[in-house]
Amino acid sequence: MAKKTSSTYRCAECGYEVAKWVGRCPECQAWGTIEERGDSRPQVARVAAGAPSAPARPIAQVDVESARAEPTGVSELDRVLGGGLVPGVVVLLAGEPGVGKSTLLLEVAHRWAASGGAPSLYVTGEESAGQVRLRAERTGNVDDAMFLAAESDLSALLGHVDDVKPGLLIVDSVQTMSSPQVEGSPGGVTQVRAVTAALVALAKERGLPVVLVGHVTKEGSVAGPRVLEHLVDVVLHFEGDRHSTLRMVRGVKNRFGPADEIGCFELRDDGIAGVPDPSGLFVNRHAEAVPGTAVTVTVEGKRPLLAEVQALVGKSYLNQPRRAVSGLDSSRVSMVLAVLEKRGGVQLGDKDVYVATVGGMKVTEPAVDLAAALAVSSAFTDQALSPKLVAIGEVGLAGEVRRVTGVGRRLGEAARMGFTHALVPPDPGPLPDGIKTLEVADLASAVHAVGYVPG
């Protein structure tokens, strides 16, 4: 009797295995990615010991100079990368179409070429070389040591690398490249995985920094197989509102530096420029105090940033009052509204509530809870808060104001920007000079305390 072979089905994006075929992956929720893998039983084999490529040494004797980061010349990008590009690093820069990825990388290629070292090579698969040249001339990013090629074939790309011998390789974008040895259309799961693996091997073999441009899906995640983010060393998200000039590079993964830093840029007609002091971009300066506004200080990586939360409360004419949130976590705002109504005495059951941040900033940390609650309370009572007041703290379900990290660093930034008073959680730790603090234990006392802060 013939031996029955068993098959397994695996998701091409996340690797999740199921016993039978399904249309949608239960793990990553991707459609049409389940593939049959044949016999699921692993083949156990003994592996003989081989000669090591290099002998193991005490860690103190390992040379660290070969792993030093080299600055790109763009200070805000270097901040996110942890100082610059390490030899052999592979960086994936993902963002929506038209957000400015190519403009930023042209600036990086130009700065690298102008530094006097090895040339930079910019390979584009989405535009012609003439189109990229026109953008480079408009933004002033033209240098004799900056090479440009329009290719979509991986073998041709490797040929350009052999000819130019660059010190930096930029590929725009990885979804447009294809390998003739692999089946599938460009941008498909198989092609993207194969092209990325080949470029990673090239980077590690030659110590060549490689920057890959990636597309994003409608949900904002990196397009392509999930393994793409695991293959590369650094994953950066390039964010920004299409109707605003502000752009932010946010670190998501970084094997050589901090993974939670952000860099701020301003997109101009003549290119893109870093914004080393972006706190003022997220705060409106009003001639008079306006009800429904509160200022907090959020921390992105090691950088404290001032953020203004605005709220509008109005009578609802719907059976279910509307709740609209922009720039904040909607579920967390809903929780704060419930606590504000139950513990703070602000009746919002028949009110429409709108809460948003200024300048397109996205704030997800809990330290914004207190400012959001005070902004809604101010809008409800139509009483403006002091324009010199900042509020920092997490709000719990019992109405308590909890401590957050880095209160002293946050208040130092607020004092530098001219704020004189702050509401903080109990026992905040060492505080800087130049700003008066008032500790509030719960939300009700915070709502009551704002009336005693001078305007």
Automatic annotation (TrEMBL):
GO terms for biological process: recombinational repair. ATP binds at G95, E96, P97, G98, V99, G100, K101, S102. A motif (RadA KNRFG motif) lies at residues 253-257. Residues 66-216 form the RecA family profile domain. Keywords: ATP-binding, DNA damage, DNA repair, DNA-binding, Hydrolase, Metal-binding, Nucleotide-binding, Stress response, Zinc, Zinc-finger. The keyword Zinc-finger applies. Pfam families: AAA_25 (PF13481), ChlI (PF13541), Zn_ribbon_LapB (PF18073). InterPro entries: AAA+_ATPase (IPR003593), DNA_repair_RadA (IPR004504), P-loop_NTPase (IPR027417), RecA_ATP-bd (IPR020588), Ribosomal_Su5_D2-typ_SF (IPR020568), Ribsml_uS5_D2-typ_fold_subgr (IPR014721), Rubredoxin_2 (IPR041166). This is DNA repair protein RadA. It comes from Prauserella rugosa. The gene is radA.
